[in-house]
Amino acid sequence: MPIPLKSHASWLTLLFLSTAVVSTSGDVLSGLSAYPDCAKPCIISAIQGGICDLDNKACICSSAAFSANVTSCVETKCTIPESLVVMNISRTDCDETPRDRSIELKVVTITVGTVAGLFVMLRFGYKLMISNVALAMDDWLTLATMIVVIPNLIITINGTIPNGLGRDIWSLTPDQITTVIRFFFTTAVLYFALTTLVKLLFLSFYLKVFPTRVVQQVLWGTFAMTALWGVGFVFLTIFQCQPISYFWQKWDGLHDGTCLDANTIAWANAASGIALDVWILAIPLLQLRKLQLKWKKKIGVVLMFLVGAL
Ligand SMILES: *[C@@H]1O[C@H](CO)[C@@H](O)[C@H](O)[C@H]1NC(C)=O
Ligand SMILES: *[C@@H]1O[C@H](CO)[C@@H](O)[C@H](O)[C@H]1NC(C)=O
Predict the structure, then answer these.
(1) Where are the disulfide bridges (predicted)?
(2) Could you identify the atom of ligand 2 that is nearest to the CA of residue 89?
(3) Cα of 88 to ligand 2 centre, how many Å?
(4) For burial by CB atoms within 10 Å, which of 168, 247, 260, 290 has the most?
């Protein structure tokens, strides 16, 4: 992990006077004493290298060479949590404020959740109070989807965001980082369940609309395949690390465990998910060819299905 490091000038002047003292006794200077011990020799050696003048805060805070020198040293001498402390101190000293996009994240999450919730309420309100038709499988799957969506929103708003999602990592405590990743893990599992339920929802709607025997068989086959696909990815996500908790502990480099490659899992899920979507969407579109409709109406129906797919 590259750690661009910038450092304050005030203590450096003192450092200049007593480098020898510092390098032997380690903890003499107020500025330097804030840093973890592992980083002190790195800072001292970078200063002695002469990239920046000691009283030149602008240089120390912006020089890529100075930062690269300290960073590469800190990477070998410090643990990752210690490196983050180094980053926090130096960036604070250089008057940087950590970026924070948690408000936007919250607004987007709440807006999207509310809109989705309203549509689902409309759907059930209409079915139960106005049309009075019995609830079918697609309704139950809609309900199941909401049962997954709601905890996902709650975890994001009350867990992931307050613990640091959307903020610079160096402004978080190690506990917060672990907690964020743990909440993220939970929402990732829920997300895989969610995408599966939405696909099943479409299939169950098509099952209602296309009664032909062959189409029903194709739809049920796809339904079973999608369900297996979903269960497979949920399990793969949960058990990608051994022990499971290693997923949210491995970032600090101080725990033992093994993991499958998370990127590979995400890509495999995305690629196979899109392929499934295309296939699921193709089923009604292929049926349309057989309908006795004017081409204008056909285009209308195709558009309807495509909008639904969005
Ligand atoms: C940083 O600079 C010092 C002085 O030039 C040099 O001795 C040291 O090897 C450099 N460290 C790294 C990690 O590049
Ligand atoms: C980062 O530095 C600031 C200022 O010294 C301090 O208040 C804060 O607790 C530090 N945060 C972490 C995560 O170390």
Answers:
(1) 38-78, 42-73, 52-59, 61-94
(2) 2
(3) 6
(4) 247
